[in-house]
Design brief:
This protein is α+β, with helices and mostly antiparallel strands and 66 residues long. It is built from 1 helix and 3 strands; from the N terminus they run βαββ. Strands 1-3-2 form a 3-stranded antiparallel sheet, with helices on one face. It comes from Planctobacterium marinum.
Length: 66
């Protein structure tokens, strides 16, 4: 049996340039999910190409055993 979680950039702490979400903050958030047993099964990133390193926005789905 699996449980699922919708993940999005609103769960990532804002930091960096103009208080946006940096790549480092996104990686830290995803690593926290992994430590809690969540496995990302789908992730869609939208990055602002005018700002290197962010801000990054994403929406996805994670699962873990119940």
């Amino acid at each position: 049996m699996w449980e699922y979680k919708i993940i999005d950039s609103n769960s990532v702490e804002k930091a960096g340039f103009l208080k946006g979400r940096t790549l480092e903050a996104v990686e830290a958030y995803l690593n926290e999910l992994g430590q809690d047993g969540w496995e990302i099964i789908d992730l869609d990133f939208n990055m602002d190409p005018t700002l290197p390193g962010g801000p990054t926005h994403f929406l996805g789905v994670a699962k873990r055993k119940k």
